[in-house]
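STRUCTURE REQUEST FORM
Protein name: Enoyl-[acyl-carrier-protein] reductase, mitochondrial
Source organism: Trichonephila clavata
Requested output: structure tokens
Priority: standard
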Amino acid sequence: MRAYLTGSSVKDLKVGSWVIPTAEDGTWKTHAVYTEDKLLKIDETLPLVSAATIYVNPCTAYRMLKDFENLKEGSTVIQNGANSAVGQAVIQIAKHFKINTINVIRDRPNVESLKSYLTNLGATHIVVENELRSPLMADIFKSIPKPALAFNCVGGKSAAELMRHMTDKGTVVTYGAMSKQPLMINTGHLIFNDLRIRGFWMTKWKEVHTKEEVEKMLKEITSIIKTGLLKPPTNRMVKLDNFKDAVAKSMESYVTEKQILVME
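Status: completed
Returned output:
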């Protein structure tokens, strides 16, 4: 969103500033009136798509990497849904912090192309779901430590498979349920491995943290974008009049591009 008019008491914004509204009052609008405290200023030198998508998926990835485990250089994270927008952000931000990622994807007709794409983003290892019970995993752990942190956006058996490969006292963070299946947890992982099961919702994080904390996070994410290490997901720009087409496209199987609605 761009500021078109500013009142005499506005201090940090000017006409033309790029801003994101913090109020949860809907996003499909071309004009709105806000007080300055309800807007976040965005760096105007960012690529437009990066600026438009910075406030949700990159923030989710950043907070999950920062808030649940004390990860150090050389630590490992495992995640399912690795080709999702959050998954791609996890790969890139983790690479920035020199953290290894094991990225689980579903098998599909273009799987090799997807693996190549995620590798170029910085993925350390990429496995399809049926490889989680193969000797490949043992080979992977010859060169990197077992994960202390797992990100689950699928649920069901997929989440259970992540837990099989985690180090003791690790944390599993669920932020989605794409399979619409209940979370499956092996009791032994709780008793003998002392895994922690947590949940995360970016909206709730924003509700309980100050605007200053949000601005600090956005500043750090912006700095990563400017290094070239955090790119937006593959996307398709769609005029708002064609929103039905964008919604239909997003519901197709094995979609890897994000649908971005353009309001003119």
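Reviewer notes: The CA atoms of residues 212 and 228 lie 25 Å apart. Residues 211-227 form the longest helix (17 residues).
Form closed.
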